[in-house]
Amino acid sequence: MAALAATTACSSSGAPGQGTNGTAPGYPQAQWVPADITNYTPADRPTGHPVRLVIVHVTQETFPDTLMLFGRPGYHASAHYTVRSQDGYLAQCVREQDVAWHAGNTAYNWRSIGVEHEGRVDEPRWFTDALYERSAVLTAAICHRYRIPVDRRHIIGHNEVPGADHTDPGPLWDWSRYMRLVTTAFGRRPA
Q: Around Cβ 60, how many Cβ atoms within 10 Å?
C-alpha cells in the first residue's frame, strides 16, 4: 500500500518516455515512476556518451521513501532503477537515455546506469533472494543492451566510484552471489 502511494505521489501523467499502462520505457518488467526533471539530466545516450558501467547502490531508505525523494523537485539525486527488498518489485525512475544523478561523479553518471536496492548497508535482512535475483536479471539485460562486459570492472559499487564518499552497497552485499546470478541471467539472453 505504501509503495502504491509512493508510485502515485511520484507519477505524472504524460511523463516523457512513459510506457503504456505505466510500464517503464527501457525495461518493460519495471513500473514507470518518474523522477522529477530537476533530479537528472535529459540526454540522448548512448550517442556521444556510451554506457559502460552498472553502479550498484543501497538506498539507506525504504522503497516508497526513495521513490518520493526522487520525485521531489530539487532533491538533486536519482537512479535509473530501484529494486524493492521484499519481493524484487522494480521501479524505473529515469530513462536509460537520460543521466541519473547517482554516482557523485559527473563522468561516471554520464557513462553508467544506476540501480538502487532498498535497504541499509548494515542490515542483511534487506538483501533478500528476490532483490538479488530481480536486480541480477535487470543488470544482465542492461549489460546485453549496451554490450557491457559482465565483470567487476564494469559492474561496480557506489563505494568504488572515484571521489564518491559513499560506502554502499557495503560489506554485507554478496558480490560473489550477485555476479553468479548476473552471469547466469546474461547467458540465458538471446544472442
A: 17
- Alpha helices in 37-174, H assignment, sequence order: 63-71, 106-110, 129-146
Cell of 144: 546485453
CATH number given to 24-187 = 3.40.80.10
Q: Tell which residue, 56, 74, 65, has the closest CA to residue 154.
A: 56
Place of cell 559492474: 155
pTM of the model: 0.88
Please measure the distance between the N-terminal and C-terminal CA atoms of the chain and give it in whole angstroms.
39
Q: Answer yes or no: are the C-beta atoms of 78 and 35 closer than 8 Å.
A: yes
What residues are labeled active site?
Answer: 116
The answer to whether 115 and 139 have CB atoms below 8 angstroms apart is yes
Instruction: Write down the domain spans for the chain.
Output: 24-187
105-138: per-residue pLDDT in tens?
Answer: 999 999 999 999 999 999 999 999 999 999 999 9
Eight-class DSSP state of 34 = P
As given in the structure block, the three cell numbers for residue 189 are 539472453
Determine how many CB atoms are found less than 10 A away from the CB of residue 125: 9
- For residue 128, the tally of other CB atoms under 10 A from its CB is 19
pLDDT tens column, 135-164: 999 999 999 999 999 999 999 999 999 997
